[in-house]
Amino acid sequence: PQTIRLADYTPFAWQVESVSLTFRLAPTATRVLSEIRFSPREGAQPGAFFLHGEGLRLIACAIDGAAVEPTLTDQGLTCPVPTGPFTFTSEVEINPEANTSLNGLYMSNGMYCSQCEAEGFRRITYYPDRPDVLAPFEVRIEGEAPVLLSNGNPTGSGKGWATWVDPWPKPSYLFALVAGDLVAHSDRFTTSEGRDVALNIWVRPGDEGKCAYAMDALKRSMTWDEEVYGRAYDLDVFNIVAVDDFNMGAMENKGLNIFNSKYVLASPETATDRDFELIEGIIAHEYFHNWTGNRITCRDWFQLCLKEGLTVYRDQQFSGDMRGHAVNRIDNVLALRARQFREDAGPLAHPVRPESYIEINNFYTATVYEKGAELIGMLRALVGDEGYAKALDLYFTRHDGEAATIEDWLKVFEDATGEDLTQFARWYSQAGTPTVTASTQFDEGVFSLTLKQHTAPTPGQPDKEPQVIPVAVGLLDSNGNEAVPTQVLNLNKTEQTFDFKGFINEPTPSILRGFSAPVVLEIEQSTETRAFLLANDTDPFNRWEAGRQLTRQTLIEALDGAPPRPELAAGLGRVLSDESLDPAFRALVLSLPGIDDIAQSLYDAGRTPDPTAIYIARKGVAQSLAAALEQPLGQAYEAMQTPGPYQPTAQDAGKRALRGAALGFLSHLDAGARAAELFAASANMTETTTALAQLIAQGTGAAQISAFAADWSHDRLVMDKWFALQTSACPPEQAAETARNLTEHPDFDWKNPNRFRSVFGGLMANTAGFHDATGDAYTLLADWLIKLDPVNPQTTARMTTAFETWRRYDADRQGMMKEALERIKATKGLSRDTSEMVNRLLA
Ligand code: B3K
Ligand code: ZN
């Protein structure tokens, strides 16, 4: 397979003036007719004329009406073309029903649906399927389905047909088509520019009662983007479609977003607080892409973070505004550490802007998305809020309608603010998480903070240059008052010392406030200092972080047989009972670091982690904390009830989160009694799943597992939870067996990505279970990935990341994981997607 390199980029030699498509839908033989106007691009050197096309049956094609016989390969066609403008027409046949990859045009429960990003459009028709070719599209759909949708504005419809015109030039990856028996939950929105927009969320009949929350989130997103970024919507309709078979979360197709149904459909009975939060965030994310992604797109796929990092940053800002910034930031950092730091520390590490790939779908990663968003936050910290606003305005005016690059993006910041971002650009090209080591000195009233940075080698990058790292620092006096309020230190050398003068007593530093940079901070701190910061830090992120450090230290000491230090229970107890603190924040302080987190910490400290031992130690710590805090935990459990009808608000969700955290501890003392009671009484999915997870973890949930299935067997999304809870929450020694049994369940529809991910994503999340010393889970997952690969390469490739930490572990586990990966690698006919992943994992 061919390696694609950023350095090899060349523009396409033709401009596409217009595209006109006709679809004659039929499940196994859809005809696609295209008429594409090309004209030579000024100054471009026309090489051979090549159009992408994969899995297409070419019926006929012509140039300016005269039939041509192109040269066909499995990647596309070439043919001689005139030197001036010309029209290329073609007719191809495709088979949506046979398309299980969910890439291109496919069928899901009788509905036609498309997914074109990154390179799916070439499975629909012959086209220059690259993001830097933008064109206006006209689409005519002929089919029996009552609802026929494409991008842009509707221009006509009749029995068996509909036409759509999208006036905004777009790359082919934003094309979409949906046809099916759908019903709409509709609303309207008037933009700040006075445009009256019809909003529709299209779902299968019966689901229309579960769209209100998504619709509300959409309207709030539209308002927010007008108010905060000055960006209004630009078409007369905005359609969202929910589909059950989808490889990822959602897709921002112009005017026709397509969503995994799990990120649209919600009711109190079926969706958890977390689901509501994700729906809000993902609806916003896809909507925000209309400007950051669609109006300004990427020149090539190496620039993916240009749209994804920025759009994640925007959806995080939005969620913070909706739900509170402190808790939102902690949640985002937890996710960043769990997924992106893990990626950066292993064989799949790559820069935010990668320089080569074999299959681009393998680069829709936490690094491109979440680290990409962190880079935007750092840029903002460097140029200030005003500079950021100016730069964004310039970005939108300068590049609207274009396919841009990271260089364009940084130039906009330089031009708007006068900053030199040469060194900052390293964040886009250097992989790996920098470690910042802090040490302090106090001498004659001067407090000195020395910061050193180091980034370990990553694949293909043995040596790293120093990066510019904004480190937000505040100093506290001995009463916990702010002696020096937060200021941002720009660490841009390997080592720098910053002096603060005029102290009588030594202050306590609070470093990397708000997690101002995606780095690992190392600082030697006593347990007392951490307890002091947990009690007093005025920065909520660092207050939480101090608690986190304490619990992490306690867990690691417990592995070596030490009982928890009394400071921990005392500190957590104070936070737990502090009614001035947001319950959601208190819940986060009480949540113990996961096994994967501890395993990485041990590995970083030069030790070989044993997931089973960590599981046991973690359980022991939870038990002793529960015993020490039984009374306040019991009180919180009672006090955090949310009487009355369920509301998916951040306030109520926070109470339920704290109540759930308390339940998690208390279940160690009451053998699941409270959880069983809660399960029986619960009228919402949040409490039901919280209770069920505890019962499963205690190994006492058999009756409730059956009851849940009896209640919900008719609801796919709820049953996904049922599958996932069992593999993720069960005692580790039962995990592989539980997963194997579930694969034999009649409802284990393994070709449905949500269902497959429920069972195996759950198994991966059960760290001690996945890494159980028998190696059963490794074998089981490898067997299923080998089975899934020919059906759905994208989902298979993504799930190979279960093995990305294999080098952390002992020789036995390493051997077994390596064998699993080698077995996948040796599979005949393995997809390009999965083969790239296993090769990188093994390299
Ligand atoms: N842009 C899409 C992701 C496409 C993934 C292709 N494998 C969704 C999003 O980031 O909003
Ligand atoms: Zn996105």
UniProtKB/TrEMBL annotation:
Extract the SUPFAM superfamilies matched here: Leukotriene A4 hydrolase N-terminal domain, Metalloproteases ('zincins'), catalytic domain
Cofactor(s) this protein requires: Zn(2+)
Question: Taxonomically, which superkingdom?
Answer: Bacteria
Q: Does the keyword Membrane apply?
A: no
Q: Where is the Peptidase M1 alanyl aminopeptidase C-terminal domain?
A: 528-842
Name the catalysed reactions. Release of an N-terminal amino acid, Xaa-|-Yaa- from a peptide, amide or arylamide. Xaa is preferably Ala, but may be most amino acids including Pro (slow action). When a terminal hydrophobic residue is followed by a prolyl residue, the two may be released as an intact Xaa-Pro dipeptide
Q: Does the keyword Protease apply?
A: yes
The record's top EC class is hydrolase
UniProt domain Aminopeptidase N-like N-terminal: residue ranges: 91-174
Instruction: Using the record's annotation, list all stretches that form the Peptidase M1 membrane alanine aminopeptidase domain.
Output: 213-426
Q: Which family does it belong to?
A: Belongs to the peptidase M1 family.
User: NCBIfam families of this UniProt entry?
Assistant: pepN_proteo
Q: What name appears for this protein in its UniProt entry?
A: Aminopeptidase N
What is this protein's gene name?
pepN
